[in-house]
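Progress report, Aim 2. The chain analyzed during this reporting quarter is listed below.
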Amino acid sequence: MVSVVHSVAAQSDIEHSLLTLCEGLSADESELIRDAEVFARQVYGSHKLGSGEGVWSHALGMALILVGLKLDAASRLAALLFAIPTYDEHGLEHIEKRFGHAAAHLVGGISRLNRLRPITRDSVADAAESPEEMKAQIEVLRKMLLAMVEDIRVVLLRLASRTQTLRYYAASPDDLRAEVARETLEIYSPLANRLGVWELKWELEDLSFRFLHPDTYKKIAKQLDEKRTEREQFITDAIDRLRTELASVGIRDAEVYGRPKHIFSIWNKMRKKGVDFSEVYDVRALRVIVHDVKECYIALGIVHNIWTPISKEFDDYISNPKGNQYRSLHTAVRCPDGRSLEVQIRTWEMHNHAELGVAAHWRYKEGTKKNGEDNYDEKIAWLRQLLTWKDEVADSSDWVAHYKQAALDETIYVMTPQGRVVDLPRGATTVDFAYRVHTDLGHRCRGGKVDGALVPLNTPLETGQRVEIVVAKEGGPSRDWLNPTLGYLITQRARAKVRAWFSNLALEETLSEGRGVVTKELQRLGQGGVNIDDLAVKLGFAKAEDLFIAAGRNELSMRQFQVAVRGSDMPADERGAPEPRRRKAPDADRGILIVGVDKLLTQLARCCKPAPPDEISGFVTRGKGVSIHRVDCSNFANLAALHPERIIETDWGGHPEGAFPVDIVVDAHDRQGLLRDVSDVFTREKLNVIAVNTQSKQDKAHMSFTVEVTNVQQLKRMLVEMHEVEGVVAVRRA
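Predicted structure tokens for the chain:
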């Protein structure tokens, strides 16, 4: 646990402050600190921050807080010099030349974070008006604060700065402090909590609560009926006594620590549980960490022997873990002075799980859920480990390197023109951004502006950028966006939206084609005035559009159609059933088995061209038997959604024989002789090419082939060989 040097007011003597700032530093580092003090005071002069606090006073307060956090010399220098770029346009260059790259790097990070202040304040203000709507946005902002920095020490500097601001407001009340306090509770104290900087978290919460709810704060403070120092002394005495008792029974290396509960935490528990102050039993709390479960229960017995247990305030989460697998013994006891004390007892394994695993303290306190798309939670655990290691390592160079490695680089955070923060995976483009904001915005996307400058649509975005989408009045996406080699789309969400658009477009084309087929047939029969809706019902369709789609896909039996048009009702056993199967060659059915049905007419779907051993499923058509599709076919997915009752389980029976058409797509860098080399692969594998389509654009070749294969091994060999052809970037089955 870290300890924080409190008020800068107590550091009236500048020399004493300098001695504090140099604690734990080498002679050379101490000299740099003294040099920075002189330099900063000259530049800052009488300048003040927006809060009214003097810039130098704020910088010194930040630096003293960092001493309590045991941060390195570069961090302390950055605190003293944080505002230099504001008053010197070449400030970062001067800092790097005079105080080193590390300090300049941290000051630059602080400057970048400070540019987010208007966004965070606006978001918190909006959250006050519509808390449910803006809750997710605030969570994204917290993550963005972490992701925008390459070095996590910048976040710690920002937390120190906010702590110092609240201390100033405590001494010098201002109308702005309520707004700053609200922002602190929503953004900064959760960050301190997640990073395990408990001392800053407690102070940030207590001061913010004091500014927002002064009457409630004073009431709880009065109910505590003792000073903080007195409560802390009680905890110290309780720890000493419990350690002595544990040692007497052979548990000599137990970790025992605790602290008085801070006022905001007490109020939060009273509010959430709907209880009075007298029913809050963990105002003062101890935690005991031992090696095994047996020692947990021995320690529990000792606690109950020293103090009087409070009935109904014992929870055994070891025998009965919480849903998140949190394990620990919780008990509340009454001390001789009449006040209560909570004691938590756990093993080191349980403790590590609670602090760093799925049951991490901040998760169940804040109510956030794990996102499987990124490793944010794991990164937080890593950062908290690093903070703990800092107390154990004398050489700061090692943990500095670890901090830099712990950057949250899996996710980027960019902003809309309105200041809304959007999270995307690293590598995402302007097109991904457009689809993330709104599907229609993605469809009509024609260009992108990043920080006001036009960029290509496949330009990867970076954290902190402001992105604006240039849209067309109408239109849809480009098929090029689905080409992975062109780099337009990174996210699966955007890809699915584009595929859905083209699928709907194909459906509309099928609908139009089918409508033409039906109209033409009705004219041929001299029945142009027939009611299409009634005709569709006669044929077993729910509506006319289903009839048109079946006709467009060539799934409509013309014989059945003609019978229905001429006014005769179809026999019930014939309606919707396939026509009698015509004799075919012995291998005509490809060895397909229909589960539960024998001797059904089957045909391989032309849209996905299934071949063994593809996972397949059947769709009962009207007039053409069962259409066999690959289960990952988009057309099959649409059919299944419209008519789930017509899906039938199918499988490849025995050893299917014959040739199966398969579509192959090849993407390559265009060159002379490319098509010849690709064709040679088909020749060597003795594959019959029955269809070819090639396109060349901007030195990129896109080639589609339909080949007949006899088995999947033949197909796999061909794909491997195709990858070895010079210039081929990707080859896949369509």
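The longest helix spans residues 492-524. Confidence is low (pLDDT under 50) at residues 1-11, 358-363, 568-590. These observations will guide the mutagenesis work planned for the next reporting period.
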